[in-house]
Write a structure and sequence with these properties.
Helix content is 58%, strand content 9%. The chain is mostly helical. It has a domain of 68 residues: membrane protein fhac (Ubiquitin-like (UB roll), Roll). Helix 5 runs antiparallel to helix 6, helix 7 packs antiparallel against helix 8 and helix 11 runs parallel beside helix 13. The longest helix is centred in the C-terminal third of the chain and has 25 residues. The chain is globular, with a radius of gyration of 20 Å. The C terminus is likely disordered.
Length: 330
């Protein structure tokens, strides 16, 4: 028991660091003239070696964000000419940033199918208009050099900004009784942006327990940004979920997400698995069985401190639990 508490404390620290990394945005990060390129986040691939990728990118250590973004665009074009599809994401980390390059192998990462694909619309358009108004508020704060942070009250999303909170209050009123439409949009609308917006709007509906249950399957969506939005919603509320929630099913979904070709997938999955371990420590054995190899790969190969540290901590947490289970079996 004492050992579990010790690992939970270490895990909480690593988890906090990775969450801070995810809360940083490329746009805010771009404001710093000191931001410099620190390396390529790339995992072993039979299609391309790290050396080949570094040569193709041509990005030098210490390059500016603007230079790196231009080089990333050119790299994407070069990969397409070689018939290689890839997800490229810039990852802020302290005063540095990294470029994550994930080659997409569709067969290795099966995705969910939409249910009766068709455009879905809400009963009225007010929630979407308010969402656009909230985005404008965030952009206005950014221009003036201010940041906006999320605050959660009973699973509902609020902010450290009163004008934004007034919009949130209006969203709660406008979305009353529209949950079914949001679920339909998330599960059936072919437009990925609409699915993302519907997940965002769930933040102002009261039944976070059912919302999280509905979003487990969305972690296998075909669009990386949709998967990331679903993970962000669930991870912000794992601590609020009831003890009889399907944590095992959620852990399985996050284990699968670790193998998906995007940095946002790995980061959200690591945060989710760490949060699940804090709620249900015994599930670490199941996590180890399903994703132990992938966790070790991330721990060994990631150069992003927040990602590497959390993966290493999960691996270290799993080791004593596995030994205890084995000794009990014999």
């Amino acid at each position: 028991m004492e050992q579990n508490k010790s690992y939970i404390k270490v895990l909480a620290k690593a988890l906090f660091c990775l969450i801070l990394l995810l809360l940083s945005t490329t746009s805010v990060f771009a404001a710093s003239n000191q931001a410099r390129f620190a390396g390529l986040e790339f995992y072993s691939s039979s299609q391309l070696t790290r050396g080949e990728l570094e040569k193709m990118s041509g990005i030098k250590p210490g390059a500016s964000l603007e230079t790196t973004q231009k080089a990333a665009d050119k790299l994407s074009q070069k990969l397409e000419k070689q018939h290689l599809k890839a997800n490229l994401q810039i990852i802020p980390s302290g005063k540095d940033f990294y470029l994550a390059v994930d080659l997409i192998d569709l067969q290795a990462a099966p995705t969910r199918k939409l249910s009766f694909p068709r455009p879905i619309r809400l009963a009225n358009n007010k929630p979407m208009l308010l969402l656009a108004e909230l985005q404008q508020r965030k952009e206005k704060l950014f221009v003036t050099g201010r940041s906006i942070s999320p605050e959660y009250k009973n699973g509902l999303l609020f902010f450290n900004d009163e004008p934004a909170n007034r919009i949130a209050e209006k969203e709660i009123e406008a979305l009353a009784g529209q949950e079914a439409f949001l679920y339909q949009m998330i599960n059936s609308d072919p437009n990925a942006l609409h699915r993302i917006q519907a997940i965002e709007l769930l933040s102002w509906t009261a039944n976070y327990q059912e919302n999280c249950r509905q979003l487990i399957d969305v972690l296998s969506d075909s669009d990386a940004d949709v998967r990331a939005e679903a993970g962000k919603y669930i991870n912000a509320r794992i601590g609020l979920l009831s003890d009889d929630f399907d944590f095992s099913g959620l852990a399985d979904a996050y284990c699968q997400q670790l193998n998906r070709p995007a940095h946002s997938d790995r980061a959200q999955a690591l945060i989710g698995l760490a949060a699940i371990y804090k709620r249900k420590p015994l599930l670490i054995v199941e996590i180890q069985k399903i994703a132990g190899t992938k966790l070790k790969e991330i721990a060994d190969q990631s150069i992003v401190p927040g990602v590497r540290n959390l993966a290493q901590t999960l691996c270290q947490t799993a080791a004593p639990a596995k030994e205890k289970t084995t000794s009990e079996e014999y």
